[in-house]
Structures are given as C-alpha cells and as structure tokens.
Amino acid sequence: MKLPKTKADVKKLLRDFWHGKPHGERRLGDLYADKTGLYKHREWRGVRDTFYYFHMVWLYNYAHMVTDIMQDGGMVNFAKGLWRYRWMGQTYLPVLHWFDRGLEGLRGEALRASAWHYRAMVCVSIKQLMDMFNADAKLHGGAHNDAWQHNIAHKETVWGGVFYPWSDQYTNVPMEMVPFFITCHVNNHTAPHYIDAVQSIGLPGDPCTMCQAEAGLFVQDDIPDYAPFVVTSNEACDGSVASTAIEDWFLDLPLFAMPQPMRFDDPLVQEHCANEIRELWKFVEEQTGVPFNEQLLCEKLERQNALQRFEWEKWDVAAKTPYYPINSVAQALYRVYQTQYGDHDIWHRTDRKISRIMAKCVERKIESFPLTRHRAIAWSCAPLYYSNWTTWAYNCWGLNVVINMDSLMFDMTIRTDNLDDCVLDMARYHEWAPMRRMTVGGMQHIFELWDYMERFRCDMVIMYDQLHCKSMQGVSGLFEDEFRKRDIHAIWIPHALADKRTVSRSEIRRIVNDYMTTVMKEEPLDPSLLEYDDDMGW
Amino acid sequence: MRHTSTRRAARHCPLLRLLRVLLTVAAALYALLFVVFFFDLDGKLLYYVVEPLLCRHYDRMERRNPLDMPYRTDR
Ligand code: SF4
Hints:
By secondary structure, chain A is α/β, with parallel strands linked by helices. Chain A has helices at 7-19, 47-72, 75-84, 86-92, 95-102, 108-135, 146-149, 177-186, 190-199, 209-219, 239-251, 267-288, 294-320, 328-341, 345-363, 389-397, 405-408, 419-431, 436-440, 443-446, 449-455, 470-474, 476-486, 505-519, and strands at residues 151-154, 171-174, 230-232, 255-257, 374-379, 399-404, 460-466, 489-495. Chain A has a four-stranded parallel sheet with strand order 2-1-3-4. In chain A, α2 (47-72) runs parallel beside α6. The longest helix of chain A has 28 residues, at 108-135. Chain A is globular, with a radius of gyration of 23 Å. The two termini of chain A are 28 Å apart. By secondary structure, chain B is mainly α. Chain B is elongated, with a radius of gyration of 28 Å. Chain A binds chain B through residues 36, 38-42, 54, 58-59, 82-83, 86, 89-90, 93-94, 96-97, 100, 189, 201, 218-221, 248-250, 252-255, 538, and chain B through 33-34, 37-40, 42-44, 46-47, 50-51, 54-55, 57-58, 63-64, 66-67, 69, 71-73, 75. The complex binds iron/sulfur cluster. Iron/sulfur cluster (SF4) binds at residues 208, 210, 236-237, 239, 381, 435, 439-440, 466, 468-469, 497 of chain A.
C-alpha cells in the first residue's frame, strides 16, 4: 500500500475507507491467496457495508447455522451426520466461503438482497439434511424410528409439490439436493469423488456428471437410510433413468417411477403425464395408509402460486429497469431451489424482504450494477462448480447476466379451482422442470431464447456448452447459425456440470477474457481479476 | 468531594464491576471475531485443518460394498 503524500491522497484514503473503493479501483484479484482461492483478507466494502457483511451475513449466518440445527433436530444428530457423510463434512463447513464468492464486490441493496437469497437456501438445506439425519437408520443403530416412518424420499428432480397432499403428516426429502446439488456449489472438491466412485464400478466417463455423481453417492453408500419408500423420475433428461436404476438397486425400497415425456407439447402426452401423477398419489396412499388431501394440496399450491407471482414482479423489474438488486448467481440458485423443492415458509419470508428492498431501489432509482456494459442472458445448463462466475464477470468486465434459463423454466401458476385442471397444470409444471423445457424439450422451447432476450433487453448470450450433455444434445450448430443471422454476440462456455477437472474455472475465465478482448475489444474494469489460479479452491 | 466518593462507591459496586467485566469481554470477543472474519481465519482453519482431517476420516471409513447386494425387482 502506498502511503498518502498529499492532502488529496489523505482525503481519498479516508473516502475509500468510509465508502469502499469505487468499482475499477478495487483490485479484487489481489485479495486471493494463490491456488486456494482463500482470501488474504476479506473485501473492505466501506464502513457501512463491511459491518453489514460482518453482522448480517457472516455472524448472522454462522449463528443461524447453529440455531437452525438446534431447531431441526439437535446437535447430536448433526454431529453424527457430519462424521458419517463426506458430502456433509465437506459442504457444510465452508458455507460462508460460498457466500463470499457469490457476493464479491456487492454493495448496498444488492448486497442485502442477494445475501437474503443465500440465507434462505442455507435454511432449507439445513432442514433437509436434518430431516435425513433425524430419521437415518445408519445413524440410529439400524432402527426405523418415527421420523423414518414419516419421511418420503424422492429424486431431487421430482418436484416436491406432488407430495403436498400429505405435507401435514409426511416430510418429503429429496435424496440428492443437498448431497449433490448444493455440494457442487459450495465445495467443488466433493462431486468428483462420487463421479470417480461410479466409474470405478464400470460406468464410462461420458454420461452427464450429475447422473454420475448422484449414482456415485449410492456406490459409496453415502446416502442416509431415512424413508420407507422412494419416488423417482427421468427428469431432467433420460440420463436420470440410468442413475435411478443404480439407486433402485442399492436402496432396495418400494419405488415408484414417474417418467415425464421429453417432448411434452402434444395434449395426449399431457393427459398421460397427469395420470402418472394420479398413479403416484395412489402409491403414496398405499405406502402411508393416509388418504389424499385435496384441500391441503390446493392450499399449498396457492402458496406456491404466490411465490411465482412475486417472481414475475422480479422479472418485470429486471427486464424493464436498471434497478434490479439481485445478482445473477443469487437469482439463479434461489429460483431453481425454490421451484424444485416446493413451498416453504422461508421463501415467503425472504420474498417479503426482497419486495421491500426492490421497492426501495425502484422508488429511489438505485442502480445496483451501475457499470453494466452488457446485459446478458445465460442459456442451457450452468457449470455447478462455478455458478458464481457471473459475479466475476460483472466485477471484471461489467458483463451483467440479468437472467438465466433455469430461472425462466416455471413460467406459470397452477389452477386450484378443480382437480382435473389442477393435475394437468401440475403435469405441465413437472414437464417444465429445470433443464427439461429449454434444453431437451424440443427446438421451439430451446429457441425461446430469442423472446426472452428481447423481453429482458439483452445484447449478449452466454451459451453454456455442457460437454456431457453433448452441447445441448448437439444443437450448437443451429445456435451458431442463428447468432450469425441475428448478429448476436454469444460466448460459448464449455464445462462438465459438476466436474471441475474437465474445464477448470480459470479456463472459463480465459474464454470470456479472450472474447472480451479480441471480439469486443474492451478493457477490463478490474485487471487484477483477469488471471489468477484458484484451481484448488472450494 | 461528593463526586469522588460517589465514583469510588461505584467502583466498588459489584454489579457495576460485573458489568464492566462483561462489557470488556464482549468488546474483546467482538474484536476477535472481526479479526477472524476480516482475515478469513475461519476459511483458513477449515481449508488447512478441518477438511483434510475429515477427508482422511472419510477415506478410511469401512463401507458396505453395494455390489454385493442382489438387484431385487420384486418390491
Ligand atoms: S445437464 Fe444435460 S444431460 Fe445432464 S441432466 Fe441436464 S439435460 Fe440431462
């Protein structure tokens, strides 16, 4: 650090201390320790925001990680789970680093709004893992306790909403949402372990790494035994069928498979899909002995519809104004988590907070991302091991990914006035699952990109190229043609979803840097972020 | 004169002394937590100590070999 020499230097130093350095002078890359991505010190964001982060993000979340555990089942079960499951030990502890990486560079209302999104995800994750551990026969000497009897296990790609009719007596707990999905984002060291495990029993390396890692959890015997039966599906694509077969083998439980057709626009298919849901309900009735509760279903769906209506408000602000206060990674992860897991109190509490923050930003015309040079839309499946690359992209290049494909999947509410329409809508909702609708749901859905681009006033596309998804099932050439025809700037980002070893995070940054310098001919806002080595980081 | 004796009395009041000790401890704890936060000492401890220890434990764990299980399709 240079010592101030003149009065102006002292003034500047004081101003930077009080308000934090302006974007462009921050040199966030200098904060990283080499290779590990740990911070030499955390970012100084000015007095107000540093202490907000210290109190309301760091202390608040550490404290709530403890109180949530106490509330959801207690320290003993938590400690047993931590000792027993790799994904637990490796994921739970570095959670605050996950916040740090996603919220880098944020100030003011954006910092607050985005951090509340993260807090909600942590809260729901703790609930899920404690629901597992409280019931887990592996942690309780093989006993099938009351909690075990009252859990429903399902694949993370089965929407939690199909279990609403039993939600007053039974808890649905997705098998892989915390052990796989959350794990990848928080600590990318974990998933490769499970990928290697499944390959060690003979699976070739080219199927989707999501399906590989999910199956690997079972190969490693690293899934709790927490429920008497299980529900699976082929969501997002048929890769899940393969992992389900392995899960069925190793779980050895009564299982209901609820496949959804890949091409779902045909109305006859719709009827078929609705019947699948009705069949599932019969299966749950048989297994639990508890009758289907239509009133409860409708109440819960109405609560979920309220979440969707608020999401539409958020989209409106993001699309029509520069005052949207939620950063890209918080938007994407919160949305996918909320829609897939289903209704929970914390989503409503968070949305109320966000609503107040958003109203303030709009009323006072607060631009949370004032150095936006490009409004981008991200399409296809994102790299789970580097979901926060968008935070980097804004800080380094002013590339603001305002919306992404997974946020836009469930663009609907569900009718609750009569059961027939309700089930049809539920079928539609299920068919529009993350990755399903706009990745493998047919060209007309894949190319919805152009409409959303216009709606969100985007001038750039980030095309994720999930290598194990065979570049969105091989449509990259068609996209290239369209990009050329429509004169759209698009950056292709290859990745292997959960496996950081195929395309590293620094490689992703290099690809973006190359495009921004050679094609866009732009200078970085923060040159310290151009190149750094975080390959061994979480 | 009165002021001095009041102050002396206050110094000897056990409640106030306790309060002072508590405030000092709280301030020291707050400062310590801020240092841990600012210098990412939590991250460093987890990265260099806790995670390697836990991983060593997970690597050495006895696990059932699921491949020994027959694949039953009759449930
Ligand atoms: S990333 Fe592609 S292959 Fe993997 S589950 Fe999603 S759609 Fe299927």
